């Protein structure tokens, strides 16, 4: 890693997390014993973190002094502003779309629904106060493995375009 830019390091880590998610998902598809929600959550967490790191890498590639946090929604918006156009479109499995709603309406819906941040939902079985998450949970490894493979191709293609400028 020595001699690599911060952006390059984030791309490398993103790929490592995505590799791990794909490997574990393959194990799950091949083992009835491992086909459970807890195993699936680990795949989702690794994938979520891979996406977060990829977005950070892309942003830091153009804006090396960009402040960092864990708000993937913020990074998605920032990424789209820095890299407009179809050639930079990312296929991210964690997006929520609110078609036809204004930002204030979206904020109201999200506040009322008390939506759990995905980075927390995929890491812990309960919230900070020990309460169960208020969502339905499911994980289907066969379809998600295909999603991961498509995501890898998409990320590699977009990363190459970002690096070439």
What this model shows, in words?
This protein is an all-alpha fold and about 160 residues long. The protein has one domain. About 60% of the residues lie in helices and about 0% in strands. The chain has helices at about 5-30, 35-60, 70-80, 105-115, 120, 140-165. Helix 1 packs antiparallel against helix 6, helix 2 packs parallel to helix 3 (about 70-80) and helix 2 (about 35-60) packs parallel to helix 6.
Characteristic terms for this protein:
single chain, 165 residues
In short:
The chain is an all-alpha fold.
Helix percent reads 55-70%
User: What does the main sheet amount to?
Assistant: none
* Average pLDDT reading: 87
Q: By helix and strand content, what is the structural category?
A: mainly alpha
Number of domains: 1
């Amino acid at each position: 890693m020595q001699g690599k830019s911060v952006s390059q390091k984030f791309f490398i880590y993103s790929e490592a997390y995505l590799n791990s998610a794909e490997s574990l998902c393959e194990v799950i598809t091949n083992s009835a014993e491992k086909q459970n929600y807890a195993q699936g959550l680990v795949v989702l967490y690794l994938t979520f973190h891979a996406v977060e790191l990829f977005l950070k890498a892309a942003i830091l590639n153009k804006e090396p002094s960009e402040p960092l946090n864990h708000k993937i929604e913020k990074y998605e918006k920032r990424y789209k502003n820095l890299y407009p156009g179809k050639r930079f479109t990312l296929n991210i499995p964690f997006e929520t779309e609110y078609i036809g709603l204004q930002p204030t309406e979206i904020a109201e819906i999200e506040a009322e629904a008390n939506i759990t941040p995905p980075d927390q939902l995929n890491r812990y079985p309960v919230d900070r106060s020990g309460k169960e998450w208020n969502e339905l949970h499911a994980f289907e490894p066969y379809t998600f493995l295909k999603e991961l493979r498509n995501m890898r191709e998409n990320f590699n293609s977009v990363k190459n375009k970002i690096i070439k400028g």
